[in-house]
Description:
Largest sheet: 6 strands, mixed
Order of helices and strands: EEHHEEEHEEEHEHEEHEH
CATH topology: Aldehyde Ferredoxin Oxidoreductase,  A, domain 1
CATH class: Alpha Beta
Helix content: 25-40%
Shape: globular
CATH superfamily: Aldehyde ferredoxin oxidoreductase, N-terminal domain
Structural class: alpha+beta
Number of domains: 1
Number of helices: 7
Strand order of the largest sheet: 2-1-6-3-4-5
Radius of gyration: 16 Å
Strand content: 25-35%
Distance between the termini: 14 Å
Amino acid sequence: xxxxxxxxYVDLSGGNIKISPIPEAMRRxxxxxxxLDIYLLYNHVKPGCDPMGPxxxxxxxxxxxxxxMAPAAARCHSGAKSPLTYGVGSxxxxxxxxxxxxxxxxxxxxxxGKAEKPVYLWVHDGEVELRDAQHLWGKDAFETQKLIREELxxxxxxxxxxxxxxxxxxxxxxxxxxxxxxxxxxxxxxxxGSKNLKAVAARGTMEVSNRYxxxxxxxx
Length: 220
């Protein structure tokens, strides 16, 4: 089980990044994925905050079984205070991004504040780096993914991103991964745009091991 995967805390306002292990007690209570996302939102969103203001936060996560052969283990989750309902907002999407995030060493990312200019996050084998995304602003989701892969020189990079709808704070804006997967509920893509967060790119080679792989197949 990939229980060594970590949380990356990204302060967009200051450009600071902190990487922390996920405590075992937190794992036992919330497992991962949406469960741990809700815990993070509850503890980091300031009561009464404007959903599109800097006091809102955004989570991006893989599930506890991300990168394994378990059914639906490739799902990715992103959460925030919704600009549509002003309550808990969450969206879920398929594709290859969540497994790649796991292979890169992370199960959860938490974004706070707001970047002064458009940025994207580059996650690779335990490292996390904010990069300039001004040249990507205004591009659609497909072009954005193409340009990031070209910039970083790796066609295997998996990317979650927003397009012009999120940039222009359309309250029902989606997050896209790959060519056909979208997180379309709760307007979380709008919150990415409000924080000048264009994309998260992930690439990893860290193995996901299972102590009992054959037995696990019986449950898959």
